[in-house]
Structure formats: structure tokens, C-alpha cells
Amino acid sequence: MTKIYIYILVAALVSTFIRVLPVTVFRKPIKNRFIRSFLYYVPYVTLAVMTFPAIVNATQSKISGILALVTGTIAAWFNMSLFKVACICCAVVLISEFALV
Fold it and tell me: Which of 20, 27, 44, 55 is deepest in the core (most CB within 10 A)?
């Protein structure tokens, strides 16, 4: 039972450290253009790294997930709304799952 408290304490310390470190280390605004542009894209990359594997693994077969990902990317490229892209991806998964079974 004491291991659980140790795990919770370590998780709390790590999460506090991650939030406090930038405030204490970087007191002045960051002027380096490379670092600023790198930090600008970090949230987008993090979201993509978490989302793309979830899209592929959300279906019964990875092929239908990949087909939905490619189709959704193409639909979004042509400036379709989020609702239309989601409907197209669902239809692709439904059709490909029936075709693969």
C-alpha cells in the first residue's frame, strides 16, 4: 500500500517540476527565432503524435484505420468541414470493415 503513495508523490513532483522549471529558468522573453518557432510547434506535434496512432488503432483492422486517415486527410485538404470529414471517415471505416470481413 505504501508503494501507491510513493508513486503518487513521484507523479506529483514530476508534474510540478515540469510546470515550475520554465518559470524559474526562463525569466526573460526568449529572443532566439529558432527556439521560438520550435516551441510554437510543440503542441501541434504532441497532438499529432497522440492522435494518429489512435486513429489507426481505433478500428478492428489497421487497414481500415489507415484508409480513413488518408481519406480524411484528403477531405480536409479540400477544405471540407470537420463534420463532413468525420462522416466520410466513418463511412470509409464502415465500408472497409464490411469488405475485409
Answer: 55
